[in-house]
Write a structure and sequence with these properties.
Rossmann fold, 21% strand, 513 residues, 12-stranded antiparallel sheet, 15 helices, 43% helix, Tumour Suppressor Smad4, alpha+beta
Length: 513
């Protein structure tokens, strides 16, 4: 018999139980397995032949290394080469992160292949753990790295990267969550690389102060001198003629270059030059002396000066000519004698004494026979093995130096090494000295990795307006903008402030390949 008092007790509703972390994980795992079974069992026309092969081609990053080579070679521009390099660097970081941290932290077993048709299964099943997907991380890292530097190439690579990531589920070697987390790690790796080495659009626009120059639409009243011995100058000359039909384009050899530049500054409103840094150096001196603006079309191997002004293509310079946009830049100067009274030499980028001029001389002797990079390695080996430190008097003290470097403007970091100037009219010399002593190779590497304002027992660096050197031994080579000459016994290094006007395009969002 029931207690009569129970009829007067009101029962309260029981609140729903909050989901526990274990239940959430179980639900996510169930969804993950369900999506895996759906993708693995679904028939996609043509995918059975394409996706397994594509997945195998991405083993050890081979697909992406090949893609990087293709972008660098067929892209035909500095932006394309940077995009390829950034993609490979992002891939390397993502792969290292997944294989050293990711797979060792979560030892997830690979999916069971019962629901995967035999024809789409990989011939060799991976032996590592499932989480996260290394293929997906590498693919997305490469595509993201490329896209951060070149949106055009990123759009080309992205569908392939997406197909590789999909193939890992389609062939049954990964769960969808493995792929998603791997892709997220790939994106993170690409942005981490960008944090270390900024993309060009992240950097401030170089060149100061801005000045107006004559507008020369279609190249009207522009004389362009092309050094046929420089890198890709001959090919670029055809692009200049096409883009600037009214320009007077003159192709000459190196022996006639100086004479042709002197004629050109008297014939047009502005002087154009197509070649490497050495060629641009001679044109800059001719333009500064004549008081005419300079238009630079990069056609050499390195093109440091043009790139520091955000000039990478013929179209960049044409844009500046059309708008009349230009900047003032300093000219570095080295003058024989204890005081700057003699006939000076000039440099747009760098001036150096010590091992580097000798390295350039040996490299130039061997490069026609064995190629540029092998010749550079051979030259570095010979110089660091057989050379003795340079002896010179600096600020009244006799010193031994492996190298003295003077930059026309302060060089800033592009990642771990100095690589770019943000201001070409700062009135300053970026002076770096590698002190004499043992282990010259190590000393040079440490100097390269150091900042523009640093000191150590191996090297020193600082900003200066003028530097006097004396006691230079006869026959000592000096290098400026890639050219080599014999150093005078004594000279002064300083700058001609804002001595040159150069056309420079205003920054725009780059979307081209």
């Amino acid at each position: 018999m029931s207690d009569p008092m129970t009829h007067h007790v009101k029962r309260l509703p029981v609140p729903p139980r909050a989901p526990t972390p274990g239940r959430v994980a179980d639900w996510l795992t169930a969804r993950d397995h369900a999506v895996f079974r759906t993708v693995a069992s679904r028939h996609w026309p043509g995918a059975d032949r394409v996706l397994p092969r594509l997945s195998r081609s991405a083993n050890h990053g081979l697909l992406w290394f090949g893609a990087a080579a293709g972008i660098a070679v067929f892209g035909g521009s500095t932006r394309s080469r940077r995009a390829a390099l950034r993609g490979v660097a992002s891939l390397a970081l993502a792969s290292a992160t997944v294989n050293t941290v990711g797979k060792r932290s979560v030892r997830r077993v690979r999916p069971v292949l019962d629901s995967v048709p035999l024809m789409r299964q990989l011939k060799r099943q991976p032996l590592t753990t499932s989480f996260p997907s290394g293929h997906s991380a590498s693919a997305v890292a490469f595509a993201t790295g490329v896209a951060l530097e070149s949106r055009g190439w990123g759009a080309v690579v992205a569908p392939v990267a997406g197909a590789v990531a999909l193939s890992r589920v389609y062939t049954g070697v990964h769960f969808p969550s493995d792929v998603l987390v791997g892709a997220a790690l790939g994106v993170g790796a690409a942005f981490a690389v960008r944090g270390l080495v900024p993309t060009r659009d992240q950097l401030p626009s170089p060149g100061r102060p801005h000045t107006d120059a004559p507008r020369l639409p279609a190249g009207r009243d522009l004389v362009v001198v092309v050094n046929t011995a420089s890198g890709s100058a001959t090919a670029k000359a055809a692009l200049v003629r096409e883009a600037l039909p009214e320009a007077d384009v003159r192709e000459v050899g190196p022996e006639d270059l100086c004479a042709e530049l002197d004629k050109a500054v008297e014939s047009g409103t502005a002087l154009g030059v197509c070649g490497g840094d050495g060629t641009v150096n001679r044109a800059a001196v001719a333009a500064a002396r004549a008081g005419v603006p300079l238009a630079v079309f990069p056609g050499g191997t390195l093109n440091h000066f043009a790139y520091d002004l955000n000039i990478e293509t013929v179209q960049d310079t044409c844009r500046a000519l059309e708008a009349g946009d230009a900047v003032k830049v300093d000219l570095g100067r080295f003058t024989p004698g204890p005081d700057p009274d003699g006939s000076p030499g000039y440099f747009l980028n760098t001036f150096s004494l010590g091992v580097y001029p000798e390295l350039v001389r040996i490299r130039e002797r061997w490069s026609p026979r064995i190629g540029g990079w092998p010749a550079g390695v051979l030259a570095a080996h010979q110089v660091l093995r057989g050379e003795r430190p340079l002896e010179a008097e600096v600020r009244g003290k006799r010193r031994g130096m492996w190298m003295l470097f003077a930059g026309n403007g302060l060089y800033q970091r592009m990642g771990p090494t100095p690589g770019r100037r943000f201001d070409l009219a700062d009135g300053l010399l970026d002076v770096r000295v590698v002190h004499g002593g043992r282990l010259p190779g190590l000393r040079l590497v440490l100097a390269a990795l150091s900042g523009p304002l640093s000191r150590s027992p191996f090297h020193s660096a600082g900003r200066m307006r003028r530097l006097r050197l004396a006691g230079i031994a006869p026959g000592t080579p000096l290098a400026f903008d890639g050219e080599v000459a014999e150093a005078p016994p004594a000279f002064v290094i300083d700058k001609a402030d804002e001595a040159l006007t150069v056309y420079r395009p205003l920054p725009t969002i780059q979307t081209a390949l």
